[in-house]
Amino acid sequence: MSRMAVRPTPKSGQQGLAALVVVTVLFIVTSLVAAYTSRNLVFEQRTSANQYRSTQALEAAEAGVEWALALLNSGVITANCQASTSSADTSFRTRYLNIDATGRITPRPSASGVALWPSCVSDGSGGWTCNCPSNAAPNVTAPTGTGVFPAFRVMFATVSPGAGGLPSRPGVVRIISNGCTRLDNTCLNFPSAAAEGEARATVSVLVALAGALGSKPLAPLTVGGNLQNSFAVIASNTDTASGGIAIHAKGTVDTSAPTLIGIPGAPATQSVLDGDTTLPLYEYPLTTPHKWGLFTQTFKAWAPSYRDQPATVVVPCADTGCSAAEIRAKVLLNPGRPLWIQGHLLLDDAIEIGTADTPALLIVNGGAGVGARVTASAGATVRGMIYMQPSLVAHSTPLTSLWSDTAGATVQGALISEGDLNGTGSPTFIYDAAILNRLRLATGSFVRVPGGWKDFP
Question: Which of 181, 288, 321, 328 is most buried (CB neighbours < 10 A)?
Answer without folding.
Answer: 181
